[in-house]
Amino acid sequence: MITAEAQQRLVDHIEHMRAAGHAIHQAALPAQAGHGTFVSPTIIEIDSVTDLPGEVFGPVLHVLRYRREDMEAVVRAVNATGFGLTFGVHSRIDETIERAAATSVAGNQYVNRNMIGAVVGVQPFGGHRLSGTGPKAGGPLYVHRLLSQRPAFEPTLGELLGPVGERNVYTLRPKGAVLCVARDPERLKAQHDLVRATGNRIASDESDGYIAAVLFDGSKDELVALNKRLAARDGPIVPVHPKPYPREFLFDESRSASTPRPPAATPA
User: Fold this and answer.
1) Are the CB atoms for 12 and 34 separated by under 8 Å?
2) What secondary structure does DSSP assign to 98-163, as a single string?
3) What is the pLDDT of residue 264?
4) Which helix (H) or strand (E) holds 72?
5) Domain 177-251, classified CATH 3.40.50, yes or no
6) In this structure, are residues 79 and 71 in contact, taking their beta carbons and an 8 Å threshold?
7) pLDDT tens digits for 197-235?
8) How far is 139 from 168, CA to CA, in rounded Å?
């Protein structure tokens, strides 16, 4: 681990899970790793995603068994943690892959391959919620977001071509619940129209359970106060967009990478 503090956090987590009665399978550290900030590779069996205290960053794998019909519920529980960087599924059944990928909100989805190794320039990388609020690095919106004057929003959707030996597909999804804030009725209506036109739904108010983004029209003091209230909420960071409101701010980017299947065997 990078520091002694990071090492201790993992050690404390493993011992906490052991004390809670979870089955733990841990490799022994070799003698040469006796000095330093090493943590042994560890597998911990859990009964629910809610058994996790939050992000556990290190060589610790949590394993949860579930019934096939409960798969979407498990993925939704993962979504509810607030993180959304990478998601992986291994299956030979197309319907299972589609169900899992459609339920996950992660920015990067991997099918029948490992979950690391994005190739710069070919496989845009970035997450959502607690795992990022900006455009994907290397994606079609990255430079677009940095411009003071932006051209019309024309995303490049579909398959991303490149010499990576696998299929990469880029898509956009509506962000979800969008809070609209404006004193003027006409400006508020314009915000509502944009939210509906992009396939999102209008959040009722700041008490809405999950707000994905905010469209704001008001004074600087009102903006500061709004940001403070949103920052005090539990859960993911909520981006606030003063006008003008580029349409791309109301979408989440998703990139899926899948390993090609071997060709079917030809009878001799």
Assistant:
1) no
2) HHHHHH---SEEEESS-S--PPTTTS-B--EETT-SSPPBTSTTHHHHH-SSPPP-----EEEP-S
3) 57
4) helix 71-79
5) yes
6) no
7) 999 999 999 988 789 999 999 999 999 999 999 999 887
8) 12
Q: Are 168 and 119 in contact (CB under 8 A)?
A: no
Helix (H, G, I), strand (E, B) or coil at 225: helix
What is d(CA 80, CA 84) in angstroms, rounded to the nearest whole number?
9
CA dihedral 80, 83, 84, 90 (to 10 degrees): -80
**Per-residue pLDDT tens for 69-105?**
999 999 999 998 889 999 999 999 999 999 999 999 9
Whether residue 216 contacts residue 226, with contact meaning beta carbons closer than 8 Å, is answered with yes
Which strand (E) or helix (H) includes residue 215? strand 213-217
Most distant CA atoms of the chain, gap in Å: 76
Domain definitions of the chain by residue range? 4-65, 177-251
Instruction: Give the pLDDT confidence score for residue 154 in this predicted structure.
Output: 78
The identity of residue 64, as a single letter, is L
Distance of CA 238 to the CA centre of its chain: 14
Task: Compute the chain's Rg from CA coordinates.
Answer: 22
Any idea which residue has 């590779």 for tokens? 41
Q: What is the spatial distance between Cα 210 and Cα 233, in angstroms, rounded to a whole number?
A: 10
Low-confidence winner among 78-92, 145-159, 236-250 (lowest mean pLDDT): 145-159
SS3 48: coil
DSSP state of 21: T
* Residue 268: pLDDT over 80: no
